[in-house]
Each structure stands twice: as structure tokens, then as C-alpha cells.
Write a sequence for this structure.
């Protein structure tokens, strides 16, 4: 820690003890001292702690993992009976059998509420400076108000509550239902017309606030009655259409190449509305979304021989089946540019591995420049290819210095049982279904060519809000308002925009209904932490999928962590556990 005032530490301690109970204060603190005398120092010193911590909120072991694993999109078994069990937290969340002591839920709560506290501190400091006439501080204050609403909307999604906290030394007021909606609406409306239109990469802008308002109105029916059948009001849908239309008619454009949205240079992609900047002054780490699902035997970038995947989350067979249902088979789903991009081009004479023995396949390879090697994108299936290392851990090269690309060996097999990594469709909680190779893998984000470490220290921005989602929200609001033609037009504009690979351009649909729209949301937004939210709104969350058959509507909300309940035990009625826990 550097230059943190004693009273700041005491305020943090009070906050933690109030909301978390006993927990560690040993967390990374960015420069919050605001000791600089210039406007730039005041602004950067205020907003950096909040923006910087948003990466921790969205770590795979925090909110990203919570959203993905709780949905029908992803599953994380105890790999090989020894990896990724972590006290059973992922399995319980996937089965909707979590308890108030679940660590995945608790860690997400901690990061969201800590980040919220940082925004409150930033708002206090920036308001003082804004009142002195500091225009840069006034602009940054608008961003922190938007950030506060964004984090509170996550809390509302996860636990059905928000924290109204306007001074760092004051007790938060907990709001639920319509009161929570009204407060978030008031905060976002207070800045939507005054926040900057271009604050730079990774910062909130007018279109980002418009998108948050659209999300709020679209989900308002669920927020009002989280356990009932949503009553989607026309006036809410009208507001969704209002704000999405203002974005669609603006400066952002849909990306012809779908996977360019998640490439090294996505920082400048016109479709992105709000992202976590990985290139600028706020760069810290974080590209777990790329390597979390990839095989632990795959070296994704030959330039970084010590990097690899982690054999964690995989796509459920149920989610893959939605693609097969739409296109007739999994193979035919490749007609959709969003499902797959072939980057590892294996020569024809090497494709057939019949009779090839992994124990002595030292000559079964092709050569490619290290910087030209790319793993496939979308859903990785079957036997994978990649670099191989020698006994000293060095990447094996060809005589001209290029890299040898082999079928990847499954290092958890040996002797006569030595096998290649072969990602099978079936993955579940059985012994066989939990092996390290099981499940198709998410490969949405590119492994960075430009960072110091392609996995942990990536230069690829993490996408939070983009124009594709705006079209989906617009279509949904129109469809719920009875405008089928308008909804179909939005969806077909989105589908046919992905035309950089003409043979894989998704064809226009001829009809639309809520089930088709829900399916389309999965095709467009998978592996972006939004599936659970869509499932709840579309009435799909009580369904049955791989490893999960719990139908309790109370599981739409997560349990409030026990440490938060205990921490507020001296305040009767302050922190009330959600129903069903």
C-alpha cells in the first residue's frame, strides 16, 4: 500500500466488517492517495482503483465463473478426480445446490462490494474537485456514478438487492425490487445526457449508460418479482427500444468478422461499447477467459512455452445441441461464422491419424512460424494440434527455426494407453465424463501476441457491452411489444453482418418467436457472462441440463454469503437471507 491515510484504512475495515464479517484486508490497493496536485492526478487517482478492480470482479473464479457455471452453457467437473474440485463450489453452483458458504458466490460478493466501495470513495473525492470547477473531475464523477450503477446491477442480478451508499462513512441502505430499480434508474438518468461520448478505451460513455438503461428496463420485470412469472410492461419495452435505437443509429458498427471482437486489436473495434482496457495505463493482467477452458496440454502461443490452458470449464452437450437443432447437425453449424473459425491448418496428408501411434509419432508434424500459429476459435472439438516441448521445456523447432506443430499429447495418459487430446462432446460429473479431455472447449478470445504473457497478461480487451447485444435487446423488446417484423429485422441485421467469411455468413431467418430469439442470444453472446441473465428472463432457468435437474425458482438468486449475514448480525433485520436458503 502506498500513501493511504489512516482514516481510509479504518473506513475500509468498517465496511468489510459490516458486510463481510471476518475477512482478510490483504487486497491489492491501487494509488488512492490523490496526493498529486494537478487535475489529471486527481482524476486518475480516483477512477483507477475502481476501473482496475473491475477485472477482479470479472475473474473466472469470481463473477464470470459464477454466471457461466450456473447456466446451461458451461460445466466444470472435478477433472480426473483431482483438479478444479475446489471444495465442490463449481459443481454446487452448476447443480443449483449452492449454500450461503459457497466460495464462488462469496468471492463474487466480496469483489463486487469492494469495487462498489471504491466507486463511493472516488465519487466523494471527485465531487469535491468538481465543486471547485474542475471540469475533468466533473466528467470523471459521471463515470463513477455509472460504474456504481453497473456494479449494483450485478448485485441485483445475483442477490436481488443493491447498496445505496452515498458516503464512505455511512451505512449502506439495502434496496430491493421497485425501490432498487428506481434508484438505479435515477442514477443512470442523472448522467446519460452529460457523460462524455468518448472518454477513451475502457471507460464509461454515453452509449454505455444508454446500454445499462436498456438492460435495466429489459430486466425490470424480473427485478420486481424475481421468483414469479415476469410481467413485461409495454412502457419498459418502449424505453428499451428508445435507448437501443439511439445506440444503433450512432457511431458503433457491427463487426463483419465475429472473432475480431475478441482479437488482440479489439481495443479499436467499432462494435465495442464498454470493455476492460488491457492496453492503456490501467493494464494489469487478466485473460483467464481465454485459457480457462483450453486443454492443459495445449501451448496456445509458441512464443511463450510455459503457458498453457487449464482444462477447466467446457460447453455442456445441451448448449452444443442448440446449434445442432438450428442447423441440422454440429458439423452443419460451422455454416455460422460465430460457431467456428479454422485457424490451425493441418496439411491434408497429415489429417488422417489412423494407425498413427502417439508413442512414436515424432515425424507426424508440419512447420509454421511461431507468430503465425493460432488455435481454432469458437468451439474446439476432437483431436487438437499444437507445439510440443522437448525434455528441457523448449519448443521443438524445424531446421529453419519454425515451430513443429503436432497432434497434442494427453500427458495424463502413458505407456500403451498414451493418447492424443481428443475433446469429446460428452462431459458430466461421472468419472468418465470428468476426464481432462471431455467436453468441447470455448475458444472465443485470441491468445495475445503483444502482451508479456499471452495467458495472464493479455492485451486483448475484455468485452462487457457491445453492439451485438444492443440488437438482441432491441429485438426482444419489439417482440414482447408484438412487433414481430421489427424483431426479425433486428436479428437478421445482426446475423448477416458477420460476413467476413462469406461461406459462413449466417443466413437470414424467415420467422421469429421468443424461443428462436433465446437461441439466437446464445449463439451471439456465449462465453460473455450473460447466459444466466437471459435464461432467467426467458423462463429457462428451471430447466434440466447436464448434471442439473433442480427446478426451485428460488435458485434464480444466489444465497447471500454467510459471512455477510454474520457481519451484520448486530443490526436486526439489516441483512436478510434470500428465500430458499
Amino acid at each position: 500500500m502506498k500513501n493511504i491515510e489512516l482514516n481510509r484504512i479504518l473506513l475500509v475495515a468498517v465496511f468489510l466488517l459490516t458486510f463481510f464479517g471476518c475477512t482478510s484486508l490483504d487486497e491489492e490497493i491501487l494509488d488512492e492517495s490523490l496526493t498529486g496536485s494537478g487535475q489529471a492526478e486527481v482524476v486518475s487517482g480516483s477512477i483507477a482503483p475502481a476501473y482496475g478492480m473491475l477485472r477482479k470482479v470479472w475473474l473466472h473464479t469470481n463473477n464470470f465463473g459464477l454466471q457461466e457455471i450456473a447456466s446451461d452453457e458451461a460445466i466444470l467437473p472435478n477433472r480426473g478426480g483431482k483438479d478444479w474440485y475446489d471444495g465442490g463450489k463449481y459443481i454446487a453452483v452448476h447443480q443449483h445446490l449452492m449454500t450461503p458458504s459457497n466460495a464462488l458466490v462469496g468471492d463474487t460478493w466480496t469483489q463486487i462490494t469492494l469495487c462498489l466501495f471504491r466507486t463511493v470513495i472516488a465519487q466523494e473525492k471527485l465531487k469535491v474537485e468538481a465543486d471547485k470547477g474542475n471540469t475533468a473531475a466533473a466528467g470523471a464523477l459521471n463515470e463513477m456514478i455509472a460504474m456504481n450503477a453497473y456494479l449494483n446491477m450485478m448485485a441485483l442480478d445475483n442477490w436481488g438487492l443493491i447498496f445505496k451508499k452515498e458516503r464512505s462513512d455511512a451505512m449502506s441502505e439495502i434496496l430491493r425490487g421497485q425501490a432498487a430499480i428506481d434508484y438505479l434508474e435515477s442514477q443512470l438518468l442523472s448522467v446519460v445526457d452529460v457523460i462524455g461520448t468518448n472518454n477513451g478505451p475502457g471507460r464509461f460513455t454515453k452509449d454505455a449508460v444508454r446500454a445499462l438503461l436498456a438492460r435495466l428496463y429489459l430486466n425490470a420485470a424480473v427485478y420486481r418479482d424475481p421468483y414469479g412469472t415476469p410481467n413485461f410492461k409495454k412502457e419498459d419495452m418502449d424505453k428499451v427500444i428508445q435507448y437501443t435505437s439511439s445506440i444503433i443509429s450512432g457511431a458503433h458498427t457491427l463487426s463483419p468478422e465475429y472473432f475480431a471482437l475478441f482479437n488482440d486489436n479489439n481495443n479499436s473495434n467499432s462494435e465495442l461499447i464498454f470493455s476492460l482496457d488491457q492496453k492503456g495505463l490501467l493494464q494489469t493482467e487478466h485473460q483467464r477467459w481465454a485459457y480457462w477452458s483450453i486443454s492443459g496440454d495445449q501451448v496456445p502461443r509458441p512464443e511463450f512455452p510455459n503457458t498453457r490452458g487449464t482444462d477447466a470449464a467446457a460447453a455442456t452437450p445441451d448448449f452444443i445441441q442448440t446449434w445442432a437443432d438450428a442447423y441440422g447437425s454440429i458439423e452443419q453449424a460451422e455454416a455460422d461464422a460465430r460457431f467456428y473459425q479454422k485457424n490451425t491448418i493441418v496439411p491434408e496428408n497429415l489429417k488422417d491419424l489412423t494407425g498413427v501411434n502417439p508413442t512414436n509419432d515424432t515425424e507426424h508434424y508440419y512447420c509454421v512460424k511461431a507468430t503465425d500459429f493460432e488455435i481454432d476459435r469458437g468451439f474446439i472439438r476432437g483431436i487438437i494440434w499444437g507445439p510440443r516441448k522437448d525434455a528441457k521445456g523448449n519448443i521443438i523447432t524445424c531446421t529453419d527455426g519454425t515451430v513443429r506443430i503436432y497432434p497434442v499429447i494427453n500427458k495424463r495418459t502413458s505407456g500403451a494407453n498414451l493418447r492424443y487430446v481428443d475433446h469429446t462432446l460428452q462431459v458430466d460429473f461421472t468419472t468418465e465424463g470428468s476426464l481432462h479431455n471431455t467436453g468441447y472447449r470455448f475458444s472465443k478470445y485470441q491468445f495475445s501476441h503483444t502482451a508479456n504473457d499471452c495467458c495472464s497478461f493479455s492485451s486483448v480487451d475484455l468485452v462487457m457491452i457491445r453492439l451485438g447485444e444492443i440488437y438482441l435487446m432491441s429485438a426482444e423488446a419489439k417482440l414482447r411489444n408484438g412487433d414481430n417484423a421489427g424483431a426479425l429485422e433486428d436479428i437478421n441485421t445482426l446475423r448477416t453482418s458477420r460476413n467476413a467469411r462469406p461461406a459462413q455468413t449466417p443466413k437470414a431467418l424467415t420467422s421469429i418467436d421468443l424461443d428462436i430469439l433465446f437461441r439466437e442470444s446464445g449463439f451471439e453472446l456465449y462465453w460473455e457472462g450473460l447466459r444466466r441473465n437471459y435464461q432467467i428472463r426467458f423462463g429457462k432457468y428451471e430447466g434440466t441440463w447436464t448434471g442439473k435437474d433442480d427446478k426451485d425458482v428460488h435458485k434464480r438468486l444466489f444465497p447471500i454469503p454467510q459471512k455477510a449475514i454474520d457481519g451484520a448480525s448486530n443490526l436486526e433485520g439489516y441483512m436478510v437471507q434470500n428465500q430458499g436458503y
